[in-house]
Amino acid sequence: MNTTTSKRWDQLACNRAERLLRAAGIAPGHIVPPDQIVPLLETIIEPGDRVCIEGNNQKQADFLARSLVKTDPTHLRDLHLVQSVLALPEHIDLIERGQVSRIDFSFSGPQAARLARLVETKKITIGAIHTYLELFARYFVDLTPRVALIAAQAADREGNLYTGPNTEDTPAIVEATAFKGGIVIAQVNEIVDKLPRVDIPADWVNFVVKAPTPHYIEPLFTRDPAQITEIQVLMGMIAIKGLYAEYGITSLNHGIGFDTAAIELLLPTYAAELGLKGKICTHWALNPHPTLIPAIEAGFVESVHCFGSEVGMERYTAARPDIFFVGADGSMRSNRAFSQAAGHYACDLFIGSTLQIDLQGNSSTATKGRIAGFGGAPNMGADARGRRHASPAWLRAGREGRGNIAMPRGQKLVVQIVETYREHMHPTFVERLDAWELAQTANMELPPVMIYGEDMTHIITEEGIANLLLCTTPEEREQAIRGVAGYTPVGMARDARIVENLRDRGIIRRPEDMGIRKRDATRDLLAARSIKDLVLASGGLYDPPKQFRNW
Amino acid sequence: MEKFTLTLPSALPPQEVARAAICGVVSSGNLEILVESNPAHNNCTVVVNTSAHGFRDIWEAVLHDFARRHAAGGLSFTINDAGATPAVVSLRLDQAFETCCGVAS
């Protein structure tokens, strides 16, 4: 017999059909009673499967994760978890129960310490710690899930899904799974006759279960303005006047820390006084940060595409459809994969915070005893070498960084904004990143670096800005970093003469060099000084989570 | 608590500074600074009361730089510190000086 005709080309589909046939004994329709979910999972999932338990950095398929922990560990084992975030204790419980042998992920913030212990005791193998976009990309190459356990706001009787504002990773997970012979099981908060809109069509979904409790969503991006310090106000002024105005930054992405929240709250005040409205910060790849409300209300912002949503921002985003991406039903849709692509390719600047920066400008939040990953920051904080559209800011950065080369090329501005000492006098600037030690203890091939020195263009501290693009030698670059490293050991070891020379050449700029008066760096400059101020600025549309209400 | 006094060379301000100023608050991670005119001296004196032990060398570096950066001769500073970072110390000193002398550096 000819081998080309004997080869079967639909083994994945046949295997899916077998699994579905087995499941028919437990759940005759596609709507599964909650008390049948454990046997369903035991029937559908096979040992060795690649499984995605939808864990975004906000929305969690928590009921399905809890149910998976109740399955028979002698049968369901050797699973390979492929999901962006390991956030729930159940994700780690599965490893401890011996049901998971390998994981590929992006971020594990809340579980970072437990995960590190499991790696050190060799209970688990980590494939890689990806960026979000990189992991989604591998869903379509070599990490396609066999079974995806996802979360949506609602389903209709046919199994169409409505994800609401927290669409997040769902489309990327479902598309990869459903079109490669895999099985999709969705937990929903409610089953209704008619959905506001269809985010995931029914024929991509095999089973729907109404969870006993609504899926958990973490308010990750709410920063209380009351906690913003005057150092952060000063650094925000430096960023706006010394960087945003200087380069004419219109498209950008902000990190989620207090340093960048301060910048957002200085736009309607300090930046407006400098005449920058309409000239900077018009187009964003950003979650709906409550601290952006005053800038939006002041008319600073034209467009915001969101990775996810934020608890309490649903009514506000729905009421500002010119700014956010809102469906015909009137609610926002986020999409982490698209927003990561937007942040990587279509933004001129990324600015965020970190825990450590070394003398080459490598930056990392990795610390010993914690395997956390970086989520999307490495995609935002990297030059997009495939970019082919020009903008004044991008071209200027390219000229500064590459000098007079024959072929004109731009460069992304990648900025780290940090106080030189963190709390408890931990220096931000170090000779050697803790990432090296972590890589050794956790047997990693790569030290976990969030932003590589070659991508970093500027560092902002309370001492001023170091423009690394303008440095001509590695020695100059090192002194530029030392020159803004304050009174850390790295900063005190600066060569004062070289640093003064760098300042004369504009590579280092102090607040006074930019006409910034430190006396003005007070909290009075913030457009909102409390969560309540944000609610007022939103006209009552912003509904903060309980833990942020203190009035 | 740790307490020490530093006497630092610094340029004399262009005009005599009459008024005293207080800047900041004593709360976690913050500090207050009292500035007074001390015409009997040409140097800048700083009294530091700090809740954090073992950072004398960093204090000295921060205060020497401050005295170099500003014409603070004949001024005396009293600092009550509740664990402020060097960044906060420098900012408060600059703010206290600017408030007291009414000029940017």
Basic shape of chain B: globular
Roughly how much helix do the residues of chain A carry, as a percent range?
25-40%
Low-confidence stretches of chain A: none
**Neighbour order of strands in the largest sheet of chain B:** 1-4-5-3-2
**Multimerization status:** heterodimer
Largest sheet of chain B: 5 strands, mixed
CATH architecture of chain B, by name, is 2-Layer Sandwich
**Biggest interface pair, counts:** A-B, 19 and 18 residues
The tally of strands of chain A reads 19
Low-confidence stretches of chain B: none
Q: What's the count of strands of chain B?
A: 5
Termini of chain A, distance in Å?
Answer: 80 Å
Biggest sheet descriptor of chain A = 9 strands, mixed
Kindly list the characteristics that best describe this protein.
A: 551 residues, alpha/beta, Glutaconate Coenzyme A-transferase, 2 domains, eight-stranded mixed beta sheet, 20 helices, B: 105 residues, alpha+beta, five-stranded mixed beta sheet, 5 strands, 29% helix, 30% strand, globular
